[in-house]
Design brief:
Distance between the termini: 37 Å
Shape: elongated
Largest sheet: none
Structural class: mainly alpha
Number of strands: 0
Number of helices: 5
Mean pLDDT: 97
Radius of gyration: 15 Å
Order of helices and strands: HHHHH
C-alpha cells in the first residue's frame, strides 16, 4: 500500500490528491478494524468497519490505477485479503450472535 501511494504521490496528475485522500481513508479504516475485532471483541462493529473498508480500498485502487496502472494493480492482493477477512468477520459474527 505504501509503495502504491508513493507511486501516486510522485505523479504530477492533479487527480493524485483524491487518490491519496482515499488512501488515507482506507488506511484509517484498516487501522480501526483490528482493535475493534480483536481488542474489543466486537465482530458486528468490525463488520461495519470492514464493510466500509472494502469499497474504500477498491476506490483507492481505481483512483490510483487512473494515475499509475501499477499503483492500482498493487492493490489486488490487499483487496483479496480484505475480502477474505470480511467473509471471516461476518461468519464469526453470524455464528456468535446471542
Amino acid at each position: 500500500m505504501a509503495y502504491s501511494a508513493q507511486r501516486v504521490d510522485r505523479s504530477s496528475d492533479p487527480a493524485r490528491r483524491r487518490a491519496l485522500a482515499l488512501w488515507w481513508v482506507q488506511l484509517g479504516l484498516n487501522a480501526a478494524w483490528t482493535p475493534i475485532f480483536f481488542g474489543a471483541r466486537r465482530p458486528g462493529a468490525a463488520a461495519v468497519v470492514i464493510g466500509a473498508l472494502l469499497p474504500a480500498a477498491a476506490a483507492t485502487a481505481a483512483a490510483s490505477a487512473g494515475i499509475d496502472r501499477r499503483a492500482g494493480l498493487l492493490y489486488a492482493p490487499y483487496l483479496a485479503w480484505s475480502a477474505y477477512a470480511a467473509a471471516l468477520n461476518v461468519e464469526i459474527w453470524r455464528r456468535n450472535r446471542s
